[in-house]
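Progress against Task 2.4 (sequence-to-structure conversion) is shown through the following example record, which the project officer requested during the mid-term review.
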Amino acid sequence: MAEDMSKEKHPRKEYTVIFQPMGISCRVAEGQSIMDAAAAQDIRLRSDCGGKGLCGKCAVEITPPEHLSPLIQNELELLSQECIAGGGRLACSARVAGPLSVSVSESVLDSQEAIGKSLNGRIGTGERPYGGTYAAEPGPLGVAIDIGTTTLALYLCDLRSGEILHSAAEANPQRRFGEDVISRIAYCNNHHDGLEALQRVLINAINKLIGACIGIAGVRRDKIAEVTAVGNTTMQHLFAGLHPGRLGVSPYMPESCNARDVRATELGLDLSELCQVHLFPVISGFVGGDTAGVMLSDKPYLRDEMSLIIDIGTNGEIVLGNKDSIWVTSCATGPALEGAHIEHGMRASSGAIETVHIDPDSYRVDYTVIGSKRGVNPRGLCGSGIIDAVAEMVKTGLILANGRLREGLPGIRVDEQGIGREFAIAGNDHSPGQKRIVLTLADVRQVQLAKAALSSGIRLLMRKAGIDAIDRLVLTGAFGARFNWRNAVAIGMLPELVCQADVSTVENAAGRGAVLALLDEREKLEIQEVVRKAHLLELADDPDFAMEFIRHTAFPEAGRVDGVCGELTEGTGVTRS
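Structure tokens generated for the chain above:
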């Protein structure tokens, strides 16, 4: 009690902090980090390392810099002297010690351009549970949510007509607590209010997305009668307010694998007391409801053809099979494929280099930039650009089979020991005056880890299922639907056998599955039965995984890459959808 009274007598000082160019002014307690102060104003800054001061992606400019806590070692290592001299600090490390102004550049904002447009319109053609046709006054309404580790996607649907009235997406605000599920589980374990904090920011973001959708669609919130939600097992636990601690230790068991139904208000959703939320069943600690949603969307379990479905995001979920049997597994591809842990990595948003081509004779780099038609200059590399860059560097011999950068070739910078450290993608000799954007040796290592994990997972799953050929490949997920799959084959991320398969991409199969279950009760029952019968391969328990992983970290030899998949032309069955 004495301690509490002392705190009341000596409250923490508060200072005015202004965020520019937003012009947002607020009062911030002394000692609070700039990142937490920004989050309180709904200004989301990049935090690829979960706010641990390791990635350097949250650099902001402070005026006056003396009104902050002293520089820490990580800032001295990650920020240049020029940056520090100009008031540069890491938002996660710098703490308020006086009134100040924070200048936030566009590249530091953790924004996500809306996705899910490919789902707009009518989903499926079956009978609707409410019957009838679309009317001027829609309703009842439903909401389908895909809770990704990186991105939230939400779809507002008319349950009578099956029409998607509006969709919206944004970055998952939990990112500032950790980039991947393991770090978020650790946050819950290490903070007494960790679960509450992670659930609260997620629910607040979903409420905001619902508000945006109903506002644009011109409908009332109280007409929302049902919600379906999919996500990996950790995300569904956090959404439901279930502690994910058991998912972080062997045998990585979820609280329950069954589908769950709960009232929306119990979760904190700003919806009617009568509105119910249906969470998809999960298969294991690492194969969640999002994989169930993908299966429901594509329905490989009803097909004669052998299907390989890969949902590539922060994790890689793999589904293999047909009407005879379904096999599933999950591998930790890591966030590198979505731009995190990469020197100049970023989301697939305005200013991101999305395609790369390198001339094999001159080593000249050509690229395309998202938003270039609006005069946007390159600011970094998104996942598709990263894969393109690595593939082109492998093809031209700039990257050796072991992942080393080949010293002596144009564009390769070496350190004092003569070791190749980076290759210039933009801001090189061919594009003077632009921001220098490079792919570093450390970036290549991150890609090697991701591609080895995915390649090993696919091969072991096929071996376990006794399958040596596939008829169709479906790529989906935040990254999977946006990259050049031929270049993924070229670097060994995907096996060459996919070149003989029909290849298609789906923008968000997990979200599509959530919509289908929202519109038809029979779909919910169907996927629960499929999940119950699915065969699971736990890669962590497979004795061959470690050796397979090591074997597939290497890249193909440069000369061997040139003819991978040949020149695919129209009529090969390769499609983009």
